[in-house]
Amino acid sequence: MSLRSTLDNPGDQEVKELLGQVKRIAVVGLSDKPTRDSYRVARYLQDHGYEVIPVNPMAQEILGQRSYPDLASVPGPVDLVDVFRRSDAVPEIAEAAVKIKPKALWMQLDVQSQKSADLARRHGIMVVQDACLKVEHHRLLS
Prior knowledge:
The chain has helices spanning 12-21, 37-47, 90-100, 114-122, 133-141, and strands at 24-28, 51-55, 61-62, 65-66, 80-83, 104-107, 126-128. The protein is of the alpha/beta class. InterPro entries: CoA-bd (IPR003781), NAD(P)-bd_dom_sf (IPR036291).
């Protein structure tokens, strides 16, 4: 199965290269509850060597890492922004993301926003919509 779809996601080779390059992943909407998908995906990413940066204004720390209220508050470069929020929240996140210039904006399964994708692409940011980062990492790199 490939990421190619009507959402104009990049091909498998591009995503594989991206996942081999990124080191720091900001997870917007990361929950501090171990039963939530965002927590499980972030833990998987940590277990596979990525630095996970929680972005959740309601938490102080998640998975042993300081949590930040928004993308603008994250110190240093961010390679990939992984979005675990509803689709209607993505435009605001995309606007913040283009300011920090990540390599990619990744919208998790069932999350999509064409307006946000277009904005990010205009700024040279790769976009993946409606796909689970954990599933794709496992499929392409395991």
